[in-house]
Amino acid sequence: MNDYPGPEKDDFKTLTDLREEREDVGRNCSTNPTMGDIIHMRFSRRAFMGGSLAVAAISTTVSPLALLTADDARAEMSGTFDFTEVEAGVDETHHVAEGYDADVLLRWGDKLFADSPEFDPKNQTAAAQQKLFGYNNDYVGFIPLDGSPDHGLLVVNHEYTNAELMFPGFATIQKVTEDGKEKEKVVLGDYTKELVDIEMAAHGGTIVEIRKVDGKWQPVLDGKFNRRITATTEMQLSGPVAGHERVKTPSDPTGVKVLGTVNNCAGGVTAWGTYLMAEENFHGYFGGELAADHPEAAQMERVGAPGGDYAWWTFYDRFDMGKEPTEANRFGWVVEVDPMDPNSVPKKRTALGRFKHEGAESVVNKDGRVVFYCGDDERFDYVYKFVTKGTYNPDDRAANLDLLDEGTLYVAKFSENGTVAWMPLVHGEGPLTAGNGFNSQADVLIETRRAADLLEATKMDRPEDVQPNPATGKVYVMLTNNTKRKADQVDAANPRGDNAFGHIIEITETDGDFAALTSRWDVLLKCGDPSVAEVGASFSTATTKNGWFGMPDNCAIDADGRLWVSTDGNNAKATGRTDGVWAVETEGEGRGTSKLFFRVPVGAEMCGPAFNPTGDTFFLAVQHPGDAGLATYETPATRWPDFRDDMPVRPAVVAVTRQGGGKIA
Ligand code: FEO
Ligand code: CA
Ligand code: CA
C-alpha cells in the first residue's frame, strides 16, 4: 500500500476528535489529589526528567536511543515474546507480525443470521441493520462452546456510530471561517427519523457463533445463539437502584424496564459465561435542556448530560432531558447478558455504580467471591473495584446469574507510600449519609462520582481498561492521557502534568487476594516516545523505535499471563504511526520492554484484544478506520478492508492466527 500522506492541515480535527474533546472535559471539581500529584510525590527524587509533553517536540529532539537501530535493539531483547516486530508507520491497511495471518472475520454490515439481508450501503434501513453486524466494534470476548477453543460465541460491543462515514451523501466538506481563518470542515446533513433508527440499530452488541474450519474462523449464520442487542432492546434495571423513584420515567412508571444500551466501550466475560457491556459516554445521547433548579441538574452536570452529540432526542422524547429528565439515570451502568439464552432480558447491574464505565474485567478470588475492576473514563475520574457478596459456584451456572446484584463497590485512593486503599461506597458509612444528600444505597450508586469525591478518591488520568492477571495477583490500569492537567496543578518537576501519552499503573493485590482492601501500586510504564527526553517515557532501552506507544486503552492477558496493550489516539500526523497492539514485558530484567505486534489502517483505533483459551487466536477490533482528515462516506482516508469503490470503509474484527498453527508468541 502507498504511504498515507496525512491530513493537509496541522490543526485539523475529525468529528470524532471534536466529539471526544466535548465529551471529555474533566468534570471533577473536587480537590482530591490527582494521580500525577501522587506519582510526583512518590517518585520526584528519582530520575524523572522535566519538561512539557508537546507533541511538536517529537520531530525536533533526538536522544541516543533514537540512534540505536531497530536491529541493535532487537539483539538486546531477551524477553518472553519471540515474534518479529512490525515496523511502526501509517498507511491504508493493517500490518501484523511476519508469520501471522490477520483475517477479516466480521465487518459492519456482515450477515449474522440465515435470513439477514445483503448489506446495501446505499439503501440502508433500520430493519436490515438489526440483522447485520453493527458499527464501531470495540470490546471483543470469546465464550467457548462445549469447552472448545475452536468453536464458541464471539461477543462484540458496537460503541458508537460515525454518521459522516456511514451514510452516503449525508456529510459534505464545506469552507467555513473560524477564528478569522478560512478552513474546510466536514458538516453533517439533516437527520431523518430513519437515519436515527439506523444509528440506534447499529449500536449495542453482537453475539455470534464462530467456528474454525480448516484453520480459518468463520461465523455460523444459523447459530442458535446469534443475537443483536441495540439501543432499543428491552432491558431490566436490577440491584439496589431497580424501581427507585429516580429511575422512574413517564414511559416506565415501574423504574425497572429500560430500552437499550449505548456507548458500550469495553466489557468483560464472567467465569459463568455471561457477557458484560459497559456503558461509557452515555451523556452524549441526551439533548434538550434540564432546568437548572431540577433536583437532578447538579449530578447530571457531573456526568455531562445532556451532551447533545446525537440527534436522537429530536425524535425520541426519552432522550430529551427537558421531557424525561430521569431517563439518563438509567444509563451509565454495566449490562450483563446471558448469551446462552437468546431471549434473556439483559440486566443493568446497578450495584457496580453509575459512571462512564470503560469495561468490567473480572477474576474469581481465592475465596470464591468475584472481583470486577472498572475505570471511569474521564479526565480526573476514578478507578473502582466491585466485590460480590456471594461466591462463584463452578458446578451450578444458574446460581451465579445474579451474583452481580449484591456486593460492595470500592473506589481507589493511591498514596505516595505505594499503597492503594479501596474505600467502600456504602450508604451510611463515612460521608455517604442523608446529610450529604444520600438517602439510600440507590442514591450512592446513581451518584457514584459524587460519593467517590466525598471519599477523596485519587483523580486519575482517564482510567480505561483495568485488567486483573489471575496468575500473578497483579492488576493493570490503563490511563490513556490527560492533557487538561494544567501546569499549575503540578510543579515543574512533575513531567506528566500535561500527560499527552498516558501511563500504566500496576496494582499488586496483597497475598493474591483480589478482594483486599489495601494493595500496593507501581508505575509499569510512562508512555510516549522515549527518544524525546522531554516526554519522560520509561520504556526499557531494549524497546525499539517501533516498540514505544502512547494512549494505552484496552489490554488483554494471554494464557501465559503476558500483557498485550492496545491504543487509541496515536496521531499519525504528529507521530508517524497509527494505533496498534503492543506486547509488554512485565516481569524480570525485560520489564518495560514493548514490541509492536499489529497496527491498524489510517484513522482507526485498536480495540478488543481477546484471546481464545489456547492462545492460538487473537481477536482484534479495528474501530473507525478511515476517520482521518476530511473524512466522509465519499472521502474516507482508506477504504479498508474491502478496497472497493462501491463499498464504504468498514470497522471490522480480525482474527490473528499463526501460519501453520500454534500460539501467538
Ligand atoms: Fe470508549 Fe474509554 O474509550
Ligand atoms: Ca476504549
Ligand atoms: Ca481487557
TrEMBL record:
Pfam families, A to Z: PhoX
Keyword Transmembrane attributed: yes
Transmembrane segments: 47-68
InterPro entries: PhoX, TAT_signal
Keywords carried by this UniProt record: Membrane, Transmembrane, Transmembrane helix
SUPFAM superfamilies, sorted: Calcium-dependent phosphotriesterase
Keyword Cell inner membrane: no
Residues forming coiled coils: none
Top-level taxon of origin: Bacteria
Protein name as catalogued: PhoX family phosphatase
Source organism per UniProt: Ferirhizobium litorale
High-level lineage: Bacteria, Pseudomonadati, Pseudomonadota, Alphaproteobacteria, Hyphomicrobiales
